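Colleagues,

Please find the record for the two-part complex below.
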Amino acid sequence: MAAPTTEALVDLLGMVAYGELSAFERMAADARLAPDLHRRAALSEMAAVEIANYGRLAARLTEIGADPDVAMTPYVGVVQAYHDSTEPKDWLEALTKAHVGDGVADDFFHEMAKLIEEPDRQLVLDVIHDKRYEEFAVTEIRAAIEADPKTRARLSMWARRLVGEVYSQATRVAGQRAALTTLIVTSGGDQAAVQALFRRITNAHSARMTALGLNN
Amino acid sequence: MAAPTTEALVDLLGMVAYGELSAFERMAADARLAPDLHRRAALSEMAAVEIANYGRLAARLTEIGADPDVAMTPYVGVVQAYHDSTEPKDWLEALTKAHVGDGVADDFFHEMAKLIEEPDRQLVLDVIHDKRYEEFAVTEIRAAIEADPKTRARLSMWARRLVGEVYSQATRVAGQRAALTTLIVTSGGDQAAVQALFRRITNAHSARMTALGLNN
């Protein structure tokens, strides 16, 4: 397995850091859509976990001699484009977006973590490991589908749109970040390994949809 | 000095808790107005402190047998009315709003803390004690005024509007929360003590304006 270049590592940590910062902002904004104070506070508290994770990644980037702002900058445009094209209309769309979109991103980061060395591997695994939000989202979405079965079709369609947007923005990133793309392509050793990586991500997405009670 | 009733204590802790939850939301939203990633992350990290404070207050309310959501509910409308009537147009207005508006609220909470017993007194003092944000806001606003002196008149006017709105919403709360109002009116012992309390709040506001380089 090829060791990642420093450039690829900075690219990766910058991407995860910006992912955490954006997740904080999105969850904090989505909390305003919550139907009651209890859920509003719960989501706000979960958002705070993301910003603490961001802090760890920014500190690590600084430690390896990189400027966190510079490392994150390449991802600002694509994440903005993603959010602009997938503005949730209500609480359930917001939860589905966070769960499905962040789910795919987390699975990708998990695969990438396997390609880097310690202590960065563990750091990336740590920041994607918070499952509290996942359980919260699944419970809310399943309850909503049970209360109104028409919700299933609407949210299934929404989730399909979301994941399509995630993939198209990811393709944009792949075209722009050569070091990162090289890391993925060379690390597995051959084409089959790379295909297997993407198959794992796709399968995890299908499993998540099923767990939500949504059609894939 | 009259000891506060449980009702007054729940009113007060509910108000401070909702203040923290709202401060989190507002700072998280304002972070999007930041001119660069560094400031955006800094404000987001400060927002996370507010939600941690919220958690302490909610836990204490639960401990004394109150439902945090019920205790916070009376303040949702006035805080919303305040935010609706004072929507910042840009980063500097957002910072001024947070610093001036939260400043007055914090001074009021500080005065109220004196009227309650331990451990609630220390809890209220703890959650208003974070000065990181204050220094950040003062530095940013002073630098902006130095860079463009016209900013002074604009932000001075804005701050006057803000504090007027704070006072009018506070008056609405005073009319609605009898236990809390009774605590303030009876605690000082006489009318002069109550007037002194409000004079301290007004003086602190003037000092804050001067520190910002704004006209009062």
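The domain at 6-212 of chain A is CATH 1.20.1260.10 (Ferritin).

Comments are welcome before we finalize the supplementary table.
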